[in-house]
Fold:
Amino acid sequence: MQSYDTLPGSGIPPAAPPRPGRSDAEAALVEHYPRLVRLAHLILPPALGRHRRVLAAHAVVQRSLAAAGPSRPRPRVPAPRGEQGPVLSWLRERVVSAALRAAARPGWSLGRTPLPAVLGLRVFPRAGGDDETALEAALAEVAPEVRAAFALRVLEGLAAEPAVLVLAAAGARRPDEALRAAEDLRTTLGADAESLLHGVEFDPCTVQARPTDLLRRRHRGRVAALAATLLLAATTAVVLAPRPAPRPAEPPVTPLTVASARAADPALLLRTPTDLWADTARVDLTVWPARGAGTGDTALLSRALDAWARGSGDRTGIRVTATPGTPTTPPVAPARLLFAGPVDDSAVVLLHDGGRLVRYAEPLGGRGAAVLELARADDADVTSGAAVAVSRTPLGARFLLAPWIDESAVRDLRRPEVPARPLDVSRDGVTDPVPQAPGDCRAVPALQVRSSTRIVEDHSFLLADLGEPFAAHLTWNPPPGNGAPARQPREATSAAGLAAWARSACALPELRGTGVRAVNRWEFAQQALPERAGRATWTCTRAEGWDGRARVQVAWERPDGRTAPVPAPGPPPADTAACSRFGQHLLAGTYWTAPSGARYYLAAGSRALTAITARGPVSATARGQTLAVRTDAEGRVRLTGTVPGPDRLRGWGEPERVSDGP
Structure:
């Protein structure tokens, strides 16, 4: 990220907004008061408590006028109402600076501000739901500078550079790092963060009022009068005695601690009615009923929630694992119970908090450490949320099937001609062990399941065990036909789909432990080889993760069934749109030696290509989707494909498109 400590190209620090006249500042503050108070409230630490935080936010904004200059009459044209002018920019900078100082020394900063003050009442914003509580907890864990950067980007809508300039002017020590952390937090929280921040949970100008403890107030009044009398008498006789050791201060009660306590209470676990999945438009983990013999075992559920609710450094004796990109933070709201009970030699608990799946397992014999496994579960749907691993033994993995799965079987992807073997399932939905793939790829077992007609999704699909809680959904795209339109990925349970995956199954074990949600095999081109050597198939395998990123491998398959990857000219991209609905054009090439010993350079592209051009060690042009040139050359060939529109398509691994401009 570019550093914004100075303006680009200037070499000098950015000029702060000019100090406005007092009349202008007061008018802008009154007009934008709710907005500025919300900004200050978001930056201040939640540990202040809801009452003090609200009052502190109002104090910070009201104190921002202290540096405004005297009013000077001057002719000007008023800016349209709501426009962000220099006066608002000056006020925003003052509010951010004061809020950061107050967050650094809350007791000192707030003690200097006697107003506003509320006696006999406690004020606090209206309570939100689970999403607001989760957002509040996430903001409480980051530094004030990060909250300020997050507020400027999301709440104020500033671009990256202006946000860094405001942070630097407000006295933030490392504004660039704060902005990077805020962007990471923004990505983690998702697109709903902006709407949540504009809700009542984060509005210190729309508050509820409740009285303080009335009985305690009356008692304190009487005690104060008695204390005054005793103090007068005590001044004449002071008894010296050793002071007892001070009692350790109890941790303050904050919204975060209250939310954590609720999340660790087994009595508050969410439980879905048994048949809700059959009469809802949202078929995902939220409609899984609680199953298993241990759903009423409060002690087991308490141990599972306690293991999850502990901080990352407090999980001694618990083996914690997480799939890539999965946060291991404790829960901030009651989770949904999916399963609890004995499986093989362990007591297992499955929980779902909306964005994560949590598996807790402890040995039934009391020997060995408990296991806490966390995995992302963003938008787990009919297929990607159809099976969850509950146990792994040398015999294989047992899966808890979704309530909408009616049939299940095991098949070997390497032998598509062999029918699937029916898989026994317990009354609670736990399958018999599904064998693991041996290291030599002699067999690649997969689950073949069929969804229920009760959800009008009556279809079968394949799931591959990649060593993670969720099984990965396998799909495929058939090769293009003569004039056939582009086709979306389809289930791989047909004879042609099974035959296609039989040639790619050995690549699946390489994806173990990488956080894969679904894998699609796209046969983007077929090519008749020179010298009548048969027909080759060009494929693109796209493995999509739960975080939205994807790994792509391009390969070509010889007529004898052997597969050779097509290397990219540079490092393989960590994330790309290639072979997805947003990257439907593809072009790749490789060298090939014919049975006669002659050497060729082959290239092929997807259905929309009308011509292919090769440059470099090989120079040739061909119309259509394929190219074959006899050559003795070696080295990297630069490919260019002609596609509809003004752009040209580059070969696999190079920048995808290049303009036809000068």
Notes: The two ends are 29 Å apart (CA to CA).
